[in-house]
C-alpha cells in the first residue's frame, strides 16, 4: 500500500468526528471546513469557503491546476446527528473498527480524499494535476442551498468521485435511484356518522380508492418503486371524516420514468372519486437518478482495476438512496460513488468503519487520480 500512516489518519479522524456538524449547525460545519481548508492550503491548493443560497451553509472548494479538472472529489461535511452527540459518544477505536457520529457517513470519506491528495503531494504528482474538491454542508437535508454550486462546479470537471461510504466487502456505488415525494390531499364533507351519514363525503374512503393505483406504479423491469408511506385521516369515531392525506415515496432508476410518474400523478383526478370530493396533488421527481453510462462504466472499470492491483476484489452495486452524485451524474459528468471508507449503519448510533480499509481507500484514490491525469495527457498527446 502506498499509504500506511494510519496513526496520522486517526488523529485527524478524532478531531473531525468530535466536531459536531449537524445540518443547520453553521458554526460546526464551518469548523470542519476550516480544518480541511488549512490542510488543502498546505498542499498549495487554492481554497475558498463559500456560503451559497441562504448564506447559512458553509461549503469548501479547493483546487489545484486549471479547469477542466480531471477529478472532482465530492463530499459533505454535515451529519444527521445533533449538537452534543460527539460529547455523548466520542470517536473511539475498538474491534478493528472506528466508531462515532458521522464516522462512516461521511467524515471518513472526506479524510480519504484529503490523505489521497497529501499522498500525491508527497510523490510529487499533485503539482502537475488538475483536481477540484467540493465539500458541501447540507447534503443530509437535500443539498437545497448547495445544489447550484455542485452543478456549476461539476461542469468544469471530467470525472466525479463521491466519498460516501464504501459498502462492506468493497462495494462501490455505480448507480443510485432518483426520486421524489408526492402528497395527496382529499377533501370531503363532515357529517354525523350515525344521524345523517348521507350528508357526508368520506375523505378517507375516497382517498383509499386511489392507493391501489399508486401501488401499481411499481415496476421491477424499470426499477421504479412507489410506496404510500404515510396515510392520515379521520379524527373522531362518530364523524365522517372530511380530510385525508397520503404521502408517497417514489424512486426511479431510468431517467425516462420521471415523465411517466409525474403524468400519472397529474392524471390522478377526481374521475376515480365521488364528484363531491376534491383532490389536491403536489410533488415531483426532483432528484434525478445517477444512471450508468458508457463513460461512468469506464470510470468504474478503471477504479476496479486499480483496486485489483492492491489485491482488492471490488464490486459495484445499485442503491435506492440518493446522494449529491445524482446531481453530477444528471449533469452528464461520469460519477462513481461509495469511495469513502468501508463501513455500515449510517444515520445510526452503531455506525462504524473498518480500519483495514483506511490504507486501501487512500492508496486507491491516489492511484485513480494519477490514472485519470495520465489518461488526459495521453489523449491530448
Ligand atoms: Zn452521506
3D architecture notes:
With 381 residues, this protein is α+β, with helices and mostly antiparallel strands. It has helices at residues 6-17, 26-42, 85-88, 103-122, 147-154, 203-215, 257-267, 294-309, 325-330, 357-380, and strands spanning 46-50, 59-64, 71-76, 92-94, 97-99, 131-136, 160-162, 171-176, 178-187, 191-192, 225-233, 239-240, 243-252, 278-283, 315-319, 335-336, 343-344, 352-354. The protein folds into two domains: 6-177 and 289-380, Zn peptidases (Aminopeptidase, 3-Layer(aba) Sandwich), CATH 3.40.630.10; 178-283, Alpha-Beta Plaits, CATH 3.30.70. The protein contains ten helices and 18 strands. Strand 4 (92-94) and strand 5 form a beta hairpin. The chain is elongated. The model has no long low-confidence stretch (mean pLDDT 96). The structure holds zinc ion. Zinc ion binds at residues 76, 105-106, 139, 164.
